Amino acid sequence: MPAPQQPIESHILSVLVDNEPGILARVVGLFSGRGYNIESLTVAEVSDAAHLSRITVVTSGPANVIEQIKAQLGRLVPVHSVHDLTVEGPHIARELALIKVAGTGEKRVESLRIADIFRARAVDSTIESFVFELTGTPEKITAFIELMKPLGLVDVSRTGVVAISRGPRAM
Amino acid sequence: MSGKQPAPEQMSGAELVIKALVDQGVEVIFGYPGGAVLPIYDALFKQNAIRHVLVRHEQGAVHAAEGYARSTGKPGVVLVTSGPGATNAVTGLTDALLDSIPVVCLTGQVATHLVGTDAFQECDTTGITRPCTKHNYLVKNVDDLARIVHEAFYVATNGRPGPVVIDLPKDIQVAQGPYTGPTNVKHKTYRPRVEGDEAKIKEAIALMAAAERPVFYTGGGIINAGPRAAELLREFVKLTGFPITNTLMGLGGYPGTDKQFLGMLGMHGTWEANHAMHDCDVMINIGARFDDRITGRLNAFSPGSKKIHVDIDPSSHNKTVHCDINIVGDAATVLEQMIAAWKQGGHKPKQKALDRWWQQIDQWRARDCLKYKTDPRIIKPQQAIQRLYELTKDRDTFITTEVGQHQMWAAQFYKFDKPNRWMTSGGLGTMGYGLPAAIGVQLGHPGKLVVDIAGEASILMNIQELGTAAQFRLPVKVFILNNEYMGMVRQWQELLHGGRYSQSYSESLPDFVKLAEAFHCKGLRCTDPADLDAVIREMIDHDGPVVADIAVDKAENCFPMVPSGAAHNEMILPETLGGDAAEPSVSEEGMALV
Fold first, then answer.
1. Nearest residue of A to residue B313 by CA position?
2. pLDDT tens digits for A85-98?
3. Which of A39, B53, B180, B234 has its CA 20 to 30 A from that of A120?
4. Cis before residue B560, ω within 30 degrees of 0?
5. Order of strands, edge to edge, in the sheet holding B306-311?
6. CA separation for the pair B165, B443 (Å, rounded)
7. B116 burial via Cβ count (<10 Å: 0-12, 13-18, 19+)
8. pLDDT at residue B26, rounded to an integer
């Protein structure tokens, strides 16, 4: 019999790891092997000298599953630390997106107007298309994409969320 | 690297590996040569410090290393070649991961410049073994090799133990590199917590002192924490007067003959152990992980109890069962802290309530759930194990098993008074584990009696290792309970699938006596209960490997049994069956469970 349904929560986890071959496969394999969700995942080296990478993963699940995900990540040998930014206090979460819109006439002008409202920059332009660069919360990017749909949206590339805690303290 | 240190000694990668193994105290390795490890085999040939045991299949190498590790407390070491050598080792590695056994497995790999080209005997070993090891390494630079070997031993043996793979491309084995000793290794990230949180220990002790129906439930963590943990556990259980039950992996962690011991718990656990777990008000879990074979249906598991859980692996806490007090730490260290806190606080158990609890337990015990009927015409499997126990209990005996009914009967009827005497595949349930594991145990304990309690189906999965036993003059005894069925499959088919014995009959069995003789071992057969003792004695007394084929009752089932999907106090006993209630009722959800 399944346990009583707990609400599904979305959490941003920040994982500091040794930048060694296979580390991303270890993290991704853990999520797929144990049936956890990945809503987005970003990874890049953040300290060249110490060979450290920071993985930001947005995951969702009931509270006990989120706790289990953190414990499982923590026991991977090359993992230095796991932080749940969602519960640890105020934080900033941002995503970057490149959005291609094709069209002419009034729709083309309207897309540029809306881009201005969202502070998106046109980083590529032809007489029948724009590529907009937009940074912001995932919700803001999704809202922009929705508005672009009737105006000739043809392609979207999003980075997934990167996040950091507010205030002076390091993770 | 400071300039003051002398320049490290240079040697080939293969020599580096051997030197690192020697410095780690390795005395024996289990392996099988092949193209991608020839340089290491050459280096092995030129030295005498390490003994190499040639197995007949790489799966056997890992199980042998597991048997060695579990019985000695030292890590087991495996050496296999690339490609099929590595893939054959995968079952053993997974077994070691699930049972938390420290194993270091060296695999050969094609030369670095060939990796990724689908070269001969190439496979993505680190990719394949990533989910079935605690950690793995692909060595890309000979300068890192010595450090990686030492680190692998550290990772395999510290925290919750487990298997570690080192994948060694052939060009790295022949390249010259520097040697550094084990003392220079300090791990950057992996530093498991050993000591328990004092505040939580105080809380746990207070809960225990107020308990009216307490029970200790301990597992493989007690064995992994070393003999000291078993001694401390005994002290604590005596101090409190509480009852105790062990998991399959935890047998021997507490003396099996002691009167406070309730026997094993779980799917084939005793009536008293499972009822005590269900009805307790305080559960003290040390080094066990609430496996599904223990809990039965989760929402009915020990519903009224406060639960204390001591485990070195933080991911074991609250994984499937929510506990009230979670203590991360090593079983021996935390037990020491708990005993100190109990004594310091001047705690006494609530004796009146405890006496009532014991009276209740004695009523459950009176059910005599393991009883069976003997028959002068046929050997009962339980009887065979009981006789084996009676005839071997006065010597220091090591038991391994395969997987199935015989394994559960061995767990129920063979009593272990010391840790490290019982080697079985608990988590993965690997048929074919017992014989190679017995070989590993025997190498770690020359002169001791080592018996693999087997089934006729399981033993055929790694029967080739009889060749290893013969070659290295390892006097292991294979004690086959031969019921001509994959007994546990047959039992489930009888109870849950209307007696349709789909593919579970052991057709075309070999003549085990002749088979033993073909492998230069002694073969014995017993079909008459009257001869049982004599055959067991002959098996024990023979100075060499023996296969004893014991023909047992084909229809015997293993009880008590918690059917899948049932609560852990809903056990089937033989007398529950028969008459109208011939088939236990199993829910649809239960049918989907393993």
1. A75
2. 999 999 999 999 99
3. A39
4. yes
5. B261-264, B244-246, B214-218, B282-286, B306-311, B325-328
6. 22
7. exposed
8. 98
Q: Is the CB of residue B155 less than 8 Å away from at least one CB of chain A?
A: yes
Tokens 């070649």, residue?
B81
The terminus-to-terminus CA distance of chain A in angstroms comes to 40
In this prediction, the residues of chain B whose per-residue pLDDT falls under 50 are: 1-2, 579-582
What is the predicted pLDDT for the residue at B593? 84
Residue A86 to residue A76: CA distance in whole angstroms:
21
**Residue B188: what residue type?**
K
Q: Is B120 in the active site?
A: yes
- Active site annotation includes B58: yes
Q: What's the one-letter identity of residue B460?
A: L
Q: What residues have CB less than 8 Å from B164, skipping those under 6 apart? A: B103, B104, B105, B133, B134, B135, B136, B137, B152, B153, B155, B156
Tell me if B317 and A71 make a contact (CB, 8 A cut-off).
Answer: yes
- Which two three-digit tokens encode residue B54? 């040639």
| End-to-end Cα distance, chain B | 54
pLDDT at B583: 58
Chain B residues lying within 8 Å of A31, measured CB to CB: none
Chain A environment of B129 (Cβ under 8 Å)? none
* Contact yes or no for B301/A3 (Cβ under 8 A): no
Do A75 and B317 count as a contact with CB atoms less than 8 A apart?
Answer: no
Task: Confirm whether B488 is a catalytic residue.
Answer: yes
- The whole-angstrom separation of Cα B412 and Cα B431 is 19
**Closest residue to B313, CB basis, from A18, A21, A75:** A75
Which ranges of A38-105 would DSSP assign to H, the alpha helix? 63-74, 85-88
Catalytic annotation on B259?
no
Dmax (CA) of chain A? 60
- Say what the pLDDT of residue B590 is: 81
Query: Taking the complete model, does pTM exceed 0.90, yes or no?
Result: yes
Calpha distance A36→A29 (Å, rounded)? 10
Name the stretches of chain A with pLDDT < 50: 1-2
| Range 162-221 of B in CB contact (< 8 A) with A | 188-190
Asked whether the ipTM of the predicted complex exceeds the cut of 0.95, the reply is: no
Q: Which two tokens stand for residue B543?
A: 């100075």
Phi, psi of B164 (to 5 degrees): -130, 130
Secondary structure class of B179 (helix, strand, coil): coil
How much is the mean pLDDT over chain B?
96
CA–CA–CA angle A117, A121, A123 (5° rounding)? 155
Q: Which position among B267, B408, B488, B571 bears the catalytic label? A: B488
CA of A19 vs chain B CAs: smallest distance (Å): 12
Note whether A77 contacts B317, CB cutoff 8 Å: no
| Cα dihedral B489→B492→B493→B495 (10° resolution) | 160
